[in-house]
């Protein structure tokens, strides 16, 4: 399985198939697919959807394994405000927001950029916010084997904003805690850090 994908290189046959499906969808929605502004839209949409679901092809554990360093640091590491964009599996509409991740090393630290990369791998799939939270949490827990790991995601769902209940201001928060973060004191320290103005 690829570590990183060159997102510009999509399988031509799959792109053509999705392109013709988008062509039908656009026609069925009442548009003229031959219109100048739209004529290339089926291909653009095919590529966009493949990019937004490109996380299926990437092994998130391998990303972490590629940048684990032996280090005797036993305190909390927090990476907060990681932007994320995903697609809800029910409507295939975006949900987006921020992920906050913390872990307590157990002999190894991980390259900081790898945590947002893991978020992207699991976000670029058809998801529900709860599973996305757990996918990230379990991947870090199983691969890095830290003393503890915590993940909080705050997100807005377009399927609740643009359609359906049409609530513009509601946000959803999901969280998962393993190891030392299951203890109230450690969990509270993390929650305090992510809600503070500290960089
Ligand atoms: N738990 C959870 N639900 C989600 C997520 N994304 C979308 N949903 C919900 O999935 C549900 C699908 O419900 P259905 O009744 O089958 O679909 P629907 O008729 O389009 O529902 P409405 O959105 O209420 O109009 C909705 O309540 C959505 O709000 C998510 O990440 N987690
Ligand atoms: Zn939805």
From TrEMBL:
Q: Which Pfam families match?
A: GTP_cyclohydroI
Q: Which UniProt keywords apply?
A: GTP-binding, Hydrolase, Metal-binding, Nucleotide-binding, One-carbon metabolism, Zinc
Q: Which InterPro entries match?
A: GTP-CH-I_C/QueF, GTP-CH-I_N, GTP_CycHdrlase_I, GTP_CycHdrlase_I_CS, GTP_CycHdrlase_I_dom
Please provide one cellular component term from the Gene Ontology annotations of this protein. cytoplasm
Q: Which SUPFAM superfamilies match?
A: Tetrahydrobiopterin biosynthesis enzymes-like
Any one Gene Ontology MF annotation carried by this entry is: GTP binding
Pathway(s) served: Cofactor biosynthesis; 7,8-dihydroneopterin triphosphate biosynthesis; 7,8-dihydroneopterin triphosphate from GTP: step 1/1
Q: What are the EC numbers?
A: 3.5.4.16
Q: Which residues bind Zn(2+)?
A: 88, 91, 159
Top enzyme class, one word, equals hydrolase
Name the chemical reaction catalysed here: GTP + H2O = 7,8-dihydroneopterin 3'-triphosphate + formate + H(+)
Domain spans labelled GTP cyclohydrolase I: 18-194
GO BP term (any one): tetrahydrobiopterin biosynthetic process
To which protein family does this belong? Belongs to the GTP cyclohydrolase I family.
Q: How does it assemble?
A: Homopolymer.
Q: What is this protein called?
A: GTP cyclohydrolase 1
Recall the taxonomic lineage recorded for the source organism: Bacteria, Pseudomonadati, Bacteroidota, Flavobacteriia, Flavobacteriales
- Give the encoding gene's name: folE
